[in-house]
Amino acid sequence: MNKSYWVFLCTLLITCLSCKTEKHEFPLDKRYWNVEDYKTVVLELNYGYEDDEQLPSFANPETRLIVEKLTDHKNYEVVLNDEELGLKYRNNLSTAFFKEWKDMQDIYQARNVQDKYVYEIEMLKVWHFGLGLQLRYFKLGNEDILASSDDPNASRVVFQVNSNIDTLIDNFNIYLDEINHENAFSDDGKKLLAQGIDTYFVGLVELYPQANYQNLERKIDLLEKKSSSEHIKNSLKNLRTVILSKKSKPNQG
């Protein structure tokens, strides 16, 4: 082989390596990410990384900020909580955020050969982002239904509102399914899983104290018996106590 051929091979190798390690771009200079930012970022995180490439994580100082921005509740709160904006506008925006969150759930699902979550903290933080978002998403949806109805007390309207609350509770129950896989989490992961119950499930019951929690209560009973984590058991016990305390106050909320 002549010298020019070796130069060609080296150049080709460098080019290939450069393509593989191409820098990923994220709008980290923006104070808040809007729906379009999420579309771009979620698409990149789901499909822009090689199988052997490490995703952004809290453990990596170079990429930590990406995950912090991705799971920052302020991104949706800053607009969904702004009552100077129109109700329909905020409701439509919450729907768009919810759609992006569903795609976010695919990002950090990887497990290793021991069936442990590779990105357990990141996955749970994405879950928490979604739980917080849904509390606003369904509330705005119901407010829009009531505002658009001639008679907010009509049986059809009441049924639709209650049906949406039931769907919200069912969606929250999916989070508790992770307790069936608690062996896939480290102790830190179990603590964070329990914190999600303490924060968002208690928030759910505070927001809708008189909702139908029958399925949730049954799930709590079953999972409390199944779990071997004291963190999770204690959170489930506390949640049951909160639900029962609201039942004893039928005129509240």
Give the helices and strands as they follow along the chain.
HHHHHHHHHH
The proportion of residues in beta strands is: under 5%
Major sheet size, sense and barrel closure = none
Q: Which of globular, elongated, flat, extended, rod-shaped describes the shape?
A: flat
Mean pLDDT, to the nearest integer, reads 92
Total of DSSP H or I helical runs spanning 4+ residues: 10
**What is Rg?**
23 Å
Q: Using DSSP, what is the number of strands?
A: 0
- Alpha carbon gap, first and last residue: 83 Å
Helix content: 55-70%
Structural class: mainly alpha
Low-confidence stretches: 7-21
Brief descriptors of the model:
mainly alpha
Folded structure, characterized:
Helix content is 65%, strand content 0%. It is built from 10 helices and no strands. The termini are far apart. Mean pLDDT is 92; it is low at 7-21.
Topology:
Elements: H1 3-20, H2 35-47, H3 64-70, H4 74-80, H5 87-104, H6 120-147, H7 155-176, H8 187-207, H9 214-226, H10 230-247
Helix pairs in contact: 2-5, 5-6, 6-7, 6-8, 7-9, 8-10, 9-10
Outline of the structure:
The chain has ten helices and no strands. It is mostly helical and about 250 residues long. The chain starts with a helix and ends in a 6-residue tail after the last helix.
